[in-house]
Amino acid sequence: MFTIYYIEDIDSLRFALSTFEFNIANQMPHFPGYPIYCFILKVLFLSTKSLGLSFSLIGGISIFLISIFLDKIWVLFFNKNSLRIWVMVFFTPLLFLMSTRYMPDILGLAFLIMSLYFFLSYMKTDDKRSIYIFSFLLGLEMGVRLSFMPFFLPCFVFLFFNSKSVFFKSVFIFLLSNILWIIPFVFINDFEEFLKIALNSTEGHFTSWGGGIISEEGSLSYRFFKMIESIFSDGLGGYWKNRHWLTVSLGLFWVLYIIIGLFSIFIKKTKFNNSFKVIFLCCLTYFIWIFFFQNIIYKPRHILPFLPFIILIVEYCITFNILQNKKIIYYSTFIFFLNLIFVSSFLSWQHTKRSSISQIKEYVLKNKGHQTIVFSSSLMNYYFSNHSGFEDIVLVDNKDELLKMKSDFSGQETIFSSFEIDTIINHNKSEFQLFHHNPYVNRLWYKLPLYTYNLDEK
Q1: Does residue 257 lie within any of the structural domains?
Q2: Which of 159, 208, 225, 278 could join 204 in a cystine, given CB atoms 3.0 to 4.6 angstroms apart?
Q3: Quick one: the chain helix, strand, coil %, rounded to 5?
């Protein structure tokens, strides 16, 4: 129902291309390659012959796994299941959106929750099998979503000080799990080329294009502001400037439940407290990691690991109040879930509509002339060049190149430009349009201008 059948942005394009040719040298997908995710995707694509369906199947399975193991974490400490956890996982806006997006983040989150469950199970039962399963799953996580790994640093610190023998055995299993997928991964890609890409991509991520504090402009306070927006508005569907009034009430419910839940955990000294400390340290470590070294300004998906634990806090709040026979919680919870389901479903419906860049792609193909030129950024042109219909369209991303072409213009060209170029080509624009989509569906390229120049018009 909410499966998307178009390429919504540049990152989605790279993962879509990986189903046809897995080649990190050509950024299909980009480093680190996400080999386990891409392997699963390829198997599904060969079966379904549909990109949209393949990505949605992975997303649906991931949501199912997140629900199961988050509920299992709950059962570890309260010995009963919770249907509300399942509903919140399914309808939390960003989780819902990411389950159909052409990205590995939701599967990475599933591995994160599964791994954490076995770690918490080990803490409670001291069953060494649980910690070895944790280590094995964590090795697989490396091949699904490498950037989630800092989350588990406190877990390894705990293991080291708790039992060095268990720690070293866990590290061995973790390395063995990595070897299982690294060997075929390196075999597919030339080792020297792979090493070169790894070094260049790692340096580039931290210094040039990764969106961290070095490569991205903006103060620390602005980054913190965008982090809060990403969690509260993008992640949970709470109100932000220019959003629908229903997000006001939804946001108020989230804030109220979180405050009451945290109060109960810290002040009431409940049996959930010990596990909460572990989760808190993991979340704090991950918070520091993405705050300084990830693109939290334009890519809210980096906050995904926080959402399941917010759900646990909310569930604790609701359960605690029901146990106290406060009938008002029944009514407020009913309204909260109706609000949550509506907001999330509406966003997912909007997700099925084309993104700004996809709208422009369709517009250019529909209105291209006999001689068509697209003048845009290199990333946008890469997006266009990987869609059918652009084979006979000239893509230009450099002003000097456009100036050189000017002398060869026949007067029959149609130019579509992301920038106003009246003075460059000495011709007035024929049309201006602004393409947009809801930034809380996808913050990347949510508003894009398009200038059209028909050179046969005087």
Answers
A1: yes
A2: 208
A3: 65, 5, 25
Residue finishing a domain among 304, 327, 351: 351
Same domain? 97 vs 17: yes
Boundary residue ending a domain (299, 332, 351): 351
Q: Is residue 3 part of a domain?
A: no
pTM of the prediction?
0.94
**In terms of residues, how long is the chain?**
458
Q: Which residue has the tokens 């266009």?
A: 384
264/364 same-domain check: no
Residue 1 lies in a domain: no
Could you give the CA distance from residue 7 to residue 19 in angstroms, rounded to a whole number? 13
Burial class (CB in 10 A: 0-12, 13-18, 19+), 308: buried
Same domain? For 267 and 376 the reply is: no
Q: Are residues 305 and 371 in the same domain?
A: no
Q: How would DSSP label each residue in 139-192?
A: HHHTTT-GGGGGGGHHHHHHHHHH-HHHHHHHHHHHHHHHHHHHHHHHHHS-HH
Same domain, 292 and 433: no
Burial of 137 by CB count in 10 Å (0-12 exposed, 13-18 middle, 19+ buried)?
Answer: buried
The owner of tokens 């926080």 is 306
Same domain, yes or no, for 324 and 391? no
Most distant CA atoms of the chain, gap in Å: 81
Instruction: Assess whether 295 and 419 both reside in one domain.
Output: no
CB 138 within 8 A of CB 114: no
Note down pLDDT in tens along the chain; length 458 residues.
789 999 999 999 999 999 999 988 888 898 888 999 999 999 999 999 999 999 999 999 999 999 999 999 999 988 889 999 999 999 999 999 999 999 999 999 999 999 999 999 999 888 999 999 999 999 999 999 999 999 999 999 999 998 899 999 999 999 999 999 998 888 887 778 888 888 888 888 787 777 788 878 778 999 999 999 999 999 999 999 889 888 999 999 999 999 988 888 777 655 556 777 888 999 999 999 999 999 999 899 999 999 999 999 999 888 877 656 567 778 888 999 999 999 999 999 999 999 999 999 999 999 998 889 999 999 999 999 999 999 999 999 988 898 888 877 877 889 999 999 998 888 888 899 999 999 999 999 999 999 999 987 65
Does residue 346 share a domain with residue 391?
no
